[in-house]
TrEMBL record:
GO molecular-function terms, A-Z: metal ion binding; methylmalonyl-CoA epimerase activity
Keyword Cytoplasm: no
Similarity comment: Belongs to the methylmalonyl-CoA epimerase family.
Stretch forming the signal peptide: none
Protein name: Methylmalonyl-CoA epimerase
GO BP annotations listed: L-methylmalonyl-CoA metabolic process
Record key words, sorted: Metal-binding
């Protein structure tokens, strides 16, 4: 299985407050902006593409969203690293065979058509890792 860094998710309080840094200083371009309001997600997202990487700025839409809880517990900053895999189902099976645990309730398809699931941070020594694929791009 190939694992390629897909994006870095960064928890922020207000996207509009930090977006100028990513656009003007890092010379990124705003690729997309949307709101995911499904229960357990509840986040505004800005996708910024720099020359060689993608950054997702994540702003909570309410005080109970996972991003709001993350900011309250850990502060603003890197929320997760996402790795694109060839086939999400196969990657999950292979990882489980190695004893990796997942946050099963996070398995979903996002607004951009990306299938994703988060690995339980217990299996990664505390780092939240997303595995994802893009089934419509195969």
């Amino acid at each position: 299985m190939n694992y390629v860094l897909d994006h870095v998710g960064i928890a922020v309080r207000k996207i509009d407050d930090v977006l100028p840094f990513y656009l003007n200083v890092l010379k990124g371009s705003l690729e997309d902006r949307y709101t995911a309001d499904a229960p357990g997600v509840e986040v505004h997202v800005a996708i910024v593409r720099t020359e060689d990487k993608v950054i997702e700025l994540l702003e909570p839409t309410n005080k109970n969203s996972p991003i709001a809880r993350f900011i309250k517990q850990r502060g603003k900053g890197v929320h997760h690293l996402a790795y694109q895999v060839d086939d999400l189902e196969k990657a999950i099976v292979e990882a489980k065979e190695l004893g990796i645990r997942f946050l099963d309730d996070t398995l979903r398809i996002n607004a951009r058509g990306r299938r994703l699931i988060y690995i339980n941070p217990v299996s990664t020594d505390g780092t939240l890792i997303e595995l994802c694929d893009y089934p419509n791009n195969r």
